[in-house]
Write a structure and sequence with these properties.
The complex is a heterodimer of chains A (115) and B (109). With 115 residues, chain A is mainly β. Helices cover 0% and strands 50% of the residues of chain A. Chain A has one domain: Sandwich (Immunoglobulin-like). Chain B is globular. The chains are: A mainly beta (115), B mainly beta (109). Chains A and B meet through strand 4, strand 5, strand 9 and strand 10 of A and strand 4, strand 5, strand 9 and strand 10 of B.
Chain lengths: 115, 109
Protein backbone atom coordinates (compact mmCIF):
# COMPACT_ATOMS: atom_id res chain seq x y z
CA UNK A 1 0.00 0.00 0.00
CA UNK A 2 0.99 3.68 0.01
CA UNK A 3 4.09 4.38 2.09
CA UNK A 4 5.04 7.35 4.21
CA UNK A 5 8.70 7.51 5.18
CA UNK A 6 10.18 9.26 8.21
CA UNK A 7 13.78 10.26 8.85
CA UNK A 8 15.42 9.72 11.28
CA UNK A 9 13.87 6.72 13.01
CA UNK A 10 15.47 7.74 16.32
CA UNK A 11 16.92 10.99 17.60
CA UNK A 12 18.54 11.81 20.94
CA UNK A 13 19.27 15.43 21.74
CA UNK A 14 19.98 17.66 24.69
CA UNK A 15 17.26 19.88 26.08
CA UNK A 16 17.33 23.33 24.49
CA UNK A 17 18.71 22.16 21.15
CA UNK A 18 16.80 22.33 17.89
CA UNK A 19 15.54 19.22 16.13
CA UNK A 20 13.99 18.72 12.70
CA UNK A 21 11.89 15.66 11.96
CA UNK A 22 11.50 14.78 8.30
CA UNK A 23 8.58 13.17 6.53
CA UNK A 24 8.36 11.95 2.94
CA UNK A 25 4.60 11.68 2.32
CA UNK A 26 2.81 9.60 -0.30
CA UNK A 27 3.68 11.19 -3.64
CA UNK A 28 0.29 12.48 -4.81
CA UNK A 29 -1.03 13.44 -1.40
CA UNK A 30 -1.90 17.04 -0.58
CA UNK A 31 -2.72 16.97 3.15
CA UNK A 32 -0.05 16.38 5.77
CA UNK A 33 -0.27 15.80 9.50
CA UNK A 34 1.87 15.36 12.59
CA UNK A 35 0.73 13.35 15.60
CA UNK A 36 2.48 12.75 18.94
CA UNK A 37 2.42 9.56 21.00
CA UNK A 38 3.97 9.50 24.44
CA UNK A 39 5.07 5.99 25.43
CA UNK A 40 2.10 3.78 26.20
CA UNK A 41 -0.45 6.50 25.59
CA UNK A 42 -2.83 7.36 22.81
CA UNK A 43 -2.01 9.26 19.66
CA UNK A 44 -2.64 13.00 19.83
CA UNK A 45 -3.10 15.33 16.86
CA UNK A 46 -0.58 18.16 16.58
CA UNK A 47 -1.10 19.94 13.27
CA UNK A 48 -2.23 19.58 9.71
CA UNK A 49 -0.89 21.38 6.67
CA UNK A 50 -2.28 22.02 3.20
CA UNK A 51 -1.25 24.24 0.33
CA UNK A 52 1.65 25.69 2.27
CA UNK A 53 -0.40 26.63 5.33
CA UNK A 54 -1.29 25.29 8.76
CA UNK A 55 -5.00 24.46 8.61
CA UNK A 56 -5.57 23.34 12.17
CA UNK A 57 -3.41 22.86 15.25
CA UNK A 58 -3.96 21.55 18.74
CA UNK A 59 -2.91 22.98 22.08
CA UNK A 60 0.01 20.53 22.01
CA UNK A 61 1.45 22.45 19.05
CA UNK A 62 3.45 24.88 21.15
CA UNK A 63 5.04 28.13 19.93
CA UNK A 64 8.37 26.27 19.75
CA UNK A 65 6.94 24.03 16.99
CA UNK A 66 6.85 24.88 13.31
CA UNK A 67 6.07 22.99 10.11
CA UNK A 68 6.88 23.56 6.47
CA UNK A 69 7.19 21.80 3.15
CA UNK A 70 9.44 23.66 0.74
CA UNK A 71 8.53 22.62 -2.84
CA UNK A 72 9.45 19.06 -3.68
CA UNK A 73 11.09 18.34 -0.36
CA UNK A 74 10.24 16.81 2.97
CA UNK A 75 7.36 17.87 5.20
CA UNK A 76 9.17 18.87 8.37
CA UNK A 77 8.42 19.42 12.03
CA UNK A 78 10.92 21.65 13.77
CA UNK A 79 11.12 22.04 17.53
CA UNK A 80 13.24 24.94 18.77
CA UNK A 81 14.12 24.86 21.60
CA UNK A 82 13.30 21.35 22.76
CA UNK A 83 12.04 20.54 26.26
CA UNK A 84 12.04 17.31 28.26
CA UNK A 85 8.30 16.85 27.69
CA UNK A 86 8.86 16.76 23.93
CA UNK A 87 10.20 13.21 24.31
CA UNK A 88 7.72 11.04 22.39
CA UNK A 89 7.20 9.25 19.10
CA UNK A 90 6.18 11.63 16.34
CA UNK A 91 4.14 10.21 13.49
CA UNK A 92 3.68 11.87 10.14
CA UNK A 93 0.62 11.11 8.04
CA UNK A 94 -0.67 12.15 4.65
CA UNK A 95 -3.92 11.90 2.71
CA UNK A 96 -5.10 12.82 -0.76
CA UNK A 97 -8.36 14.32 0.49
CA UNK A 98 -9.17 16.38 3.51
CA UNK A 99 -8.88 14.56 6.82
CA UNK A 100 -12.41 13.36 7.16
CA UNK A 101 -12.83 12.39 3.52
CA UNK A 102 -9.95 10.07 2.84
CA UNK A 103 -7.64 7.55 4.44
CA UNK A 104 -4.69 8.94 6.35
CA UNK A 105 -1.53 6.87 5.89
CA UNK A 106 1.00 6.93 8.70
CA UNK A 107 4.78 6.69 8.68
CA UNK A 108 6.74 4.44 11.06
CA UNK A 109 7.41 7.28 13.50
CA UNK A 110 10.49 9.12 14.78
CA UNK A 111 11.39 8.31 18.37
CA UNK A 112 12.65 11.52 19.97
CA UNK A 113 14.41 11.51 23.32
CA UNK A 114 15.26 14.85 24.91
CA UNK A 115 17.82 14.62 27.71
CA UNK B 1 -13.98 13.33 28.84
CA UNK B 2 -12.71 11.00 26.18
CA UNK B 3 -14.18 11.79 22.79
CA UNK B 4 -13.33 8.31 21.50
CA UNK B 5 -13.66 5.55 24.06
CA UNK B 6 -12.33 2.08 23.26
CA UNK B 7 -13.23 -1.14 25.02
CA UNK B 8 -11.87 -3.34 26.32
CA UNK B 9 -8.56 -1.70 27.25
CA UNK B 10 -6.82 -5.08 27.16
CA UNK B 11 -7.75 -8.54 25.93
CA UNK B 12 -6.19 -12.01 25.91
CA UNK B 13 -7.40 -14.47 23.30
CA UNK B 14 -6.56 -18.08 22.75
CA UNK B 15 -5.44 -18.82 19.21
CA UNK B 16 -8.40 -19.76 17.02
CA UNK B 17 -11.04 -17.89 19.01
CA UNK B 18 -13.10 -14.83 18.05
CA UNK B 19 -13.63 -11.48 19.67
CA UNK B 20 -14.86 -7.94 19.10
CA UNK B 21 -13.42 -4.54 19.93
CA UNK B 22 -15.59 -1.47 20.22
CA UNK B 23 -15.28 2.31 19.97
CA UNK B 24 -17.92 4.72 21.21
CA UNK B 25 -17.85 8.30 19.99
CA UNK B 26 -18.99 11.45 21.77
CA UNK B 27 -18.13 13.50 18.69
CA UNK B 28 -20.09 13.54 15.43
CA UNK B 29 -17.87 11.04 13.65
CA UNK B 30 -18.28 10.89 9.87
CA UNK B 31 -15.48 8.43 9.10
CA UNK B 32 -13.53 5.93 11.16
CA UNK B 33 -10.14 4.33 10.72
CA UNK B 34 -8.85 1.24 12.53
CA UNK B 35 -5.13 0.63 12.99
CA UNK B 36 -2.91 -2.09 14.42
CA UNK B 37 0.25 -0.85 16.12
CA UNK B 38 2.86 -3.60 16.24
CA UNK B 39 5.37 -4.02 19.11
CA UNK B 40 7.94 -1.98 17.13
CA UNK B 41 5.49 0.91 17.07
CA UNK B 42 4.53 0.99 13.39
CA UNK B 43 0.89 1.68 12.54
CA UNK B 44 -0.80 -0.55 10.01
CA UNK B 45 -4.02 0.62 8.34
CA UNK B 46 -6.78 -1.96 8.78
CA UNK B 47 -9.93 -0.18 7.68
CA UNK B 48 -11.24 3.17 6.53
CA UNK B 49 -15.01 3.33 7.01
CA UNK B 50 -17.89 5.54 6.13
CA UNK B 51 -21.12 4.30 7.77
CA UNK B 52 -21.44 0.64 6.85
CA UNK B 53 -19.43 -2.55 7.00
CA UNK B 54 -16.18 -3.80 5.52
CA UNK B 55 -14.47 -7.18 5.63
CA UNK B 56 -10.89 -8.20 4.98
CA UNK B 57 -9.87 -11.79 5.61
CA UNK B 58 -10.44 -12.61 9.27
CA UNK B 59 -11.29 -9.01 10.15
CA UNK B 60 -14.64 -7.32 9.84
CA UNK B 61 -15.52 -3.79 10.85
CA UNK B 62 -18.73 -1.81 11.13
CA UNK B 63 -19.45 1.87 11.69
CA UNK B 64 -22.85 3.16 12.76
CA UNK B 65 -22.76 6.98 12.71
CA UNK B 66 -26.29 7.37 14.10
CA UNK B 67 -25.56 5.25 17.17
CA UNK B 68 -22.00 6.66 17.33
CA UNK B 69 -19.99 3.47 17.53
CA UNK B 70 -17.71 1.23 15.54
CA UNK B 71 -16.69 -2.38 16.02
CA UNK B 72 -13.81 -4.55 14.88
CA UNK B 73 -14.40 -8.30 14.83
CA UNK B 74 -11.46 -10.70 14.79
CA UNK B 75 -12.21 -14.25 13.69
CA UNK B 76 -9.87 -17.22 14.27
CA UNK B 77 -7.28 -15.14 16.13
CA UNK B 78 -3.63 -15.82 15.26
CA UNK B 79 -0.44 -15.04 17.18
CA UNK B 80 0.47 -12.33 14.67
CA UNK B 81 -2.76 -10.45 15.53
CA UNK B 82 -1.15 -9.40 18.84
CA UNK B 83 -0.55 -5.69 19.24
CA UNK B 84 -2.47 -2.53 20.09
CA UNK B 85 -5.60 -1.73 18.10
CA UNK B 86 -6.59 1.90 17.73
CA UNK B 87 -9.74 3.37 16.31
CA UNK B 88 -9.77 6.99 15.20
CA UNK B 89 -12.61 9.22 14.08
CA UNK B 90 -12.81 12.25 11.84
CA UNK B 91 -15.65 14.75 11.81
CA UNK B 92 -17.04 16.78 8.92
CA UNK B 93 -15.68 20.02 10.37
CA UNK B 94 -12.21 18.83 11.33
CA UNK B 95 -9.08 17.83 9.49
CA UNK B 96 -7.70 15.62 12.22
CA UNK B 97 -8.18 12.09 13.47
CA UNK B 98 -9.23 11.75 17.12
CA UNK B 99 -7.83 8.52 18.52
CA UNK B 100 -9.08 6.18 21.19
CA UNK B 101 -6.76 5.01 23.93
CA UNK B 102 -6.24 1.60 22.30
CA UNK B 103 -6.96 -2.03 23.04
CA UNK B 104 -3.92 -4.17 23.84
CA UNK B 105 -4.52 -7.62 22.36
CA UNK B 106 -2.44 -10.65 23.25
CA UNK B 107 -3.06 -13.92 21.42
CA UNK B 108 -1.67 -17.05 23.08
CA UNK B 109 -1.36 -20.72 22.15
Amino acid sequence: GPKVLQIPSHQIIDMGQMVTLNCDPVSNHLYFYWYKQILGQQMEFLVNFYNGKVMEKSKLFKDQFSVERPDGSYFTLKIQPTALEDSAVYFCASSSGTGGQDTQYFGPGTRLLVL
Amino acid sequence: GDKVKQSPSALSLQEGTNSALRCNFSIAATTVQWFLQNPRGSLMNLFYLVPGTKENGRLKSAFDSKESYSTLHIRDAQLEDSGTYFCAAATSSGQKLVFGQGTILKVYL
